[in-house]
Design a protein that fits this description.
With about 190 residues, the protein is mainly α. It is about 85% helix and about 0% strand. Helix 2 packs antiparallel against helix 7. The radius of gyration is 17 Å and the shape is globular.
Length: about 190
């Protein structure tokens, strides 16, 4: 059986995208507190824990399809959410910025969390081939991602004042870059 340290390393590597996204989110939401950071961390952790289980179960049924399209789905979701963040940051004027940032809806947060955790579905497919307790693997991956994303949100909140109005633009570009990286890695690996 795969050791807890191996699962921890796997969880840490899978949470890098969630950290980058939550860092950008924290930078744009300056009035967020611990409860907001925990909410973001829990949402990211939940989806990061859920997607390996989905990948594990679907791996047997849809292995070829998942491998063929997961990178495009991740890229499309991250591009859409990132472009929306950039557009929102560019269109806000100083009056709106003085009133404080709008609290993003759950669905936008969930879409970002899903997009950053799609790679975990592919990991779930590989977990199906190994001697791994799926529930322990999902708990470790989700727990680490919750901690990492919460930390990213808190760090982003402290970095945000130095970025000013450009925090939203930077956060959007980070999401688009993550999506592009996922797509590039898959397409260059397939060539």
């Amino acid at each position: 059986m795969t050791g807890i340290l191996t699962l921890g390393a796997l969880g840490a590597s899978l949470s890098v995208d969630a950290f980058a996204a939550s860092l950008g989110k924290g930078a744009t939401e300056q009035r967020s507190g611990w409860s907001d950071a925990m909410r973001v961390g829990i949402v990211f952790g939940f989806f990061e824990a859920l997607t390996p289980a989905i990948g594990y179960l679907l791996g047997y049924l849809l292995n070829d399809w998942i491998a063929s399209y997961d990178h495009w789905v991740a890229f499309g979701l991250l591009l859409a959410v990132g472009a929306y963040m950039i557009r929102e940051a560019v269109q806000h004027d100083d009056v709106a910025a003085a009133e404080g940032p709008l609290r993003p809806g759950f669905w936008r947060l969930a879409a970002t969390a899903i997009a950053t955790s799609i790679d975990a579905a592919a990991v779930g497919v590989s977990l199906a081939l190994m001697d791994v307790n799926l529930w322990i693997a999902c708990a470790v991956i989700g727990g680490i991602t919750t901690i990492v994303a919460t930390s990213g949100m808190i760090l982003g909140r402290h970095v945000g004042p130095y970025l000013g109005r450009y925090a939203g633009i930077l956060g959007g570009f980070v999401l688009v870059a993550i999506g592009g990286s996922i797509l590039f890695q898959h397409l260059s690996g397939a060539a």
